Amino acid sequence: MICFLFFILLFNISFTQPVESEDSKDPSGASGYTPKQSEFPSLQPLTQSLPISSQPKDEEKEMSVRPKDPQQKHKHQRFPSRQPFPSVLNLPNFKMCRGYKIHKNRFHTIMFVKFWPGEKCSGITCSLPLSTLRVKEEFFLHGFWPEFTANQNMVCCRNKFLPVDVERKLIANQELFQEIRQNWMSIESCLLALYQWDKHGTCSTTTYGGPEGPIDYIKTALFLNSKFEFWKVLRESELKVEPNTLYDIEELRSVLSKTYDIHPTFVCVDMTSVLEIRICFDAKRNKLNPNTMPCPEKIFKEEKKRCAQKVMFKEFPEYLLNPETAPRNNCPY
């Protein structure tokens, strides 16, 4: 009997010992620690990172979490949004590189890429960050990509900058950060500018090197974005380009070449709908204002595979042009 009572006592003690919480464990233990995307400083509460002039009013904050009013159900049917603004669309973040490769050779050219929202937004609901004040009817900035002349892509190159550290640099440079919010904004997944740096910019460090290399790279992409207004030029040219009208691709190329002294290439969807325009640059002599150069032959071959002789531009999503009614997202930039 005494042995039985002793056994019961030991059993109770073993089940009353405190258990270490998973949350209390040291995240930097021997098993390794990968920072979560929520640790990016920009992904803290959005209003903390907005400039004072862009801080939402209390009423607007309430509206973003207020239950939907049944009477408002059809108020904004003309905008292809899953829910009427000012309800905010929750978008995922772009996934940063899983690993980084060593490239022994320097890149031969760096390709500047802008996309046409008419095609991009034709199959998805495009939206703007709350911090993007307004957009105009124009091509949007996609990226700035180092390229080899050979059939080899340069992405996710080994470098000394973590994405989190690059983002801190961007946020510390308030003027640059605001320009990113306005001109390199996320419309389908968050952190577009940082994702472009991580995937492509990391391969540009032989030119955009040093402590301010990432800043110089992003500044150059934004500078070129402001310099090349493709849609405005095409609209005002002798072609008087209109949406949903077929044009000879060589005539479009000629208009842009004469205006900017460039050698543009096109990327199309279903052979006829223009998605992107690409220009190549030689950044070796003047990396902040590089000279144009012909793209590698592989880029022109890609155009031949993806674009017909006659192409057109789908209509720009008009719902993005009105800052009061444009669908908004939760992206910090």
Automatic annotation (TrEMBL):
Pfam families: Ribonuclease_T2
Chain positions covered by the region annotation Disordered: 21-86
UniProt cross-references to InterPro entries, sorted A to Z: RNase_T2-like, RNase_T2-like_sf, RNase_T2_His_AS_2
Biased composition (Polar residues): 34-55
Signal peptide (from-to): 1-21
Molecular-function GO terms, alphabetical: ribonuclease T2 activity; RNA binding
GO cellular component, one term: extracellular region
Keyword Electron transport: no
Biological process according to GO: RNA catabolic process
Xref: SUPFAM superfamilies: Ribonuclease Rh-like
Record-linked PANTHER family: RIBONUCLEASE T2
Family label: Belongs to the RNase T2 family.
Official protein name in the record: Uncharacterized protein
Organism, scientific name: Entamoeba invadens IP1
